[in-house]
Design a protein that fits this description.
2 copies of one chain form a homodimer. Chain A is an alpha/beta fold. The first copy, chain A, has helices at about 45, 50-60, 70-75, 85-95, 115-125, 140-150, 160-165, 170-175, 190-200, 205-220, 235-240, 240-250, 270-285, 300-305, 345-355, 365-380, 385-405, 420-430, 440-445, and strands at about 5, 15-20, 65, 85, 100-105, 130-135, 155-160, 180-185, 225, 260-265, 290-295, 305-310, 320-325, 360-365, 410-415. The interface of A and B includes residues 77, 88, 108, 173 and 178 of A.
């Protein structure tokens, strides 16, 4: 094991293939269903929204899919990302654990999201799409897609939840710098948005409404398609570059396989991107990590949701997906980790959770902010609120090692920096960050909205 | 010449020595003078403010100074920084030039400033300093010093110009996360601040006032010292890690020495850090780059200032330094590149400019913002307003190459990202960024304040 703090790879070591876990599972995940017919959706149902290559990737049974050269050429701008040994954090904690974090905040958009935004924009451009639409909450996904579209010369139109549009102008500005058009959602330019504005002129919007608007515009124009930043199989697939690089970096560092892999989950894509390649190795007998998802206590789809068919959006426009869900009517309390405030979960991860391939815990946000500040003081990097959930669980595990004396190897994904979350940190320093208790009746009420199929 | 976009180095290649250009110059720069006696200041004059090792470095005649292991161990968190070949920008411009940029925004504080903040904090901690004071405008330097002090367990107290303290809270928050105490300047807790508040209760503050406050507090306590983020010889010295790494990266890429090196200048430290090692090579007959400083037209110390002894601060507390200056009373118009709004210039760089070792140009800020947006669309990274001045000059040079057909090799330092400058970009996108004309009578009036010696 070497003495480095930061294990870098040359860009010639960017992975050339994405890893698809589905053929390695004992059974495939249940298919998405058409809400009208109750039958599995086919490529023809998805073609108005997605290019054929992404539809093919969504249902592929191949273990590996080649990454196009044109995607690699954009990945080069920030990949391979560094794997850090958190030596200064270990020292601050006084733990015998060896802590590693894979840092995705070096991307232009500052998170792991460009790993999938770039191939999505590429395949769209290659198949003649002239414009991509999408929704965004605080703006991490919207800014990643804006960046990606700029690389391939296609237009990008983003519906941004009005509350964030008004209160968090900086990521909106970032999207515009990269050339995207940004609308506050609900907007008057779609039927879905206009209807809501007619009833509620002051609507603060929601991700569900923004999805409806983006989908409506994409469906109406043959040269416009829609892009989603998490949840779907092809998104998780693209994110496996994270774990593939980390495997190479563990080998380069002479480190044994991790004992615990920890990631935060909203839709699940950064967590999956990190652990899936390590799971492949585990299934092949190389290493035996405990794999742990960390979700916000305010939106605990794994730990308190149920595994059932539900809609991906609030309005009920999407196919039905079997997943861990709190119900598509569930509105999480306003925790600052906006990227984790999603009522459902990746269907693929949900299936794997049912198979017992990983575990899940939930964290309150105050503990997560405290972990982020401890981390920032030791390691310098200021984490986004989302990965601070993973860091809280890493620190918890490291402290267990201190108590037991075990020299465990811990690995997490630091999926983004917190430079656009400074208002949240300001509130934390002012003691103005509440924890939220989520009552069972509130979950039960939201679950009552589940579709009967 | 290889095909990479990003030339990375392993952390084992972090430079082990800083390069001191002074012994390679035909004559040394004129010494700073004591304002009372008119005699050169000695170590005893500086000892209340700086640790002895930094005073030694300030006047050293050695070509190389060893970097302590404890500093290297913190540099490892982000160094070596990547050298990028701006292939996508070249393509967007259609230029035959080969454009390289050394990216310092990967540091925890997001700029080159930690390169000197870290050794300054280290030497202070090693010599028993318990608290460092400093001033900061928009907060780049203050946040770098806050980060560095956190690494060595010493306190950090920052006087932040009130206008920025109120209008730019995010870097203030960043400093606090790293454990620093941040005061709005003028503050009632110093005599200098209290006096100004008594006369002007609504004073927006200035860097000059903030320096006076930080120096006053440091001078009054034997365990408190003061740190400066640019201008001084030891600061430029520490920044040479930028150029030393770039030299290795040019060699690793199989690229010939640059034809043009371009950097932005406020106090001069990032520009010097990039070009000094290349100048050493040039003086030894290896390469012959044109070296070009770019300053804001609103604060043109090289191109319109005079070379004379002046104070480093507005209040006249510092030693007199011979430098290019617009007069210590000069208040630049409020351009967004806050890091370049300094009335003077590094005395060492000023001396070298007089020796004809580099040239200088001035740019209006609208051209610089336009360059930054062109760059961000092509390369992804959003530049801070300061290096956008260098980018404007790079694009100008690349366009000259397009006209002439010359395949020049251009090198610049992208000294920081713009994540904390989004309000400025928002104004630029709204068409709300003015250029400022600086009249000669205004410069003449400020120069009338020069001390007679």
């Amino acid at each position: 094991m070497d003495e480095r703090t930061k294990i870098t790879l040359d860009e010639s070591e960017i992975p050339r293939r994405w890893y698809n876990v589905i053929p390695d599972l004992p059974e495939p995940p249940p298919p998405p269903l058409h809400p009208g017919t109750g039958q599995p959706v086919g490529p023809e149902d998805l073609a108005p929204l997605f290019p054929m290559e992404l539809i093919r990737q969504e249902v592929s049974g191949d273990r590996y899919l080649d990454i196009p050269d044109e995607v690699i050429d954009v990945y080069r701008l920030w990949r391979p990302t560094p794997l850090f040994r958190a030596r200064r954090l270990e020292k601050a904690l006084g733990t015998p654990a060896r802590i590693y974090y894979k840092y995705e905040g070096v991307s232009p958009a500052g998170s792991h999201k460009p790993n999938t935004a770039v191939p999505q924009a590429f395949y769209n451009a290659a198949e003649g799409t002239r414009r991509l639409t999408t929704e965004t909450g605080a703006g991490q996904w919207g800014s990643a897609l804006a960046f990606a579209c700029a690389q391939y010369g296609i237009d990008c139109e983003v519906w941004m939840v009005r509350a964030s549009y008004d209160q968090k102008p900086h990521r909106r500005t970032l999207m515009r710098i990269w050339g995207a058009t940004v609308h506050a959602s609900p907007s008057p330019i779609t039927a879905a948005g206009a209807k809501i504005l007619a009833d509620h002129p002051d609507s603060p919007g929601s991700l569900g409404i923004a999805i409806s608007e983006a989908v409506e515009v994409a469906a109406a124009d043959p040269f416009t398609r829609y892009a989603l930043g998490s949840v779907l199989n092809h998104v998780l697939l693209h994110q496996t570059v994270i774990g593939e690089e980390a495997l190479k970096q563990f080998a380069a560092a002479g480190e044994r396989p991790p004992d615990v892999i920890i990631g935060c989950t909203g839709g699940g894509s950064n967590f999956a991107g990190l652990f899936l390649p390590f799971l492949r190795e585990k299934l092949a007998g190389r290493g035996d990590p405990v794999i742990r998802a960390v979700e916000p206590a305010a939106c605990p789809s794994f730990t308190r949701g149920i595994y059932a068919y539900d809609f991906g959006d609030t309005a009920g426009f999407t196919p039905l997906m079997k997943m861990h869900t709190l119900g598509h009517d569930f509105i999480p309390d306003p925790v600052h980790a906006g990227g984790l405030r999603y009522h459902g979960m990746s269907p693929l991860l949900s299936h794997m959770y049912e198979l017992g391939l990983f575990e899940a815990v939930a964290k309150q946000q105050r503990e997560c902010f405290a972990a982020a500040v401890t981390f920032a003081k030791a390691e310098g990097i200021l984490p986004a609120p989302e990965p601070s959930h993973a860091l809280a669980a890493v620190i918890e595990e490291a402290n267990r090692c201190t108590a037991s004396g075990e020299e465990k190897v811990l690995l997490t994904a630091l999926c983004g920096h917190g430079h656009f979350d400074m208002t949240a940190y300001e509130r934390y320093l002012a003691g103005d960050i509440p924890d939220f208790e989520l009552s069972q009746p509130r979950i039960d009420a939201a679950l009552a909205s589940l579709p009967r199929i």
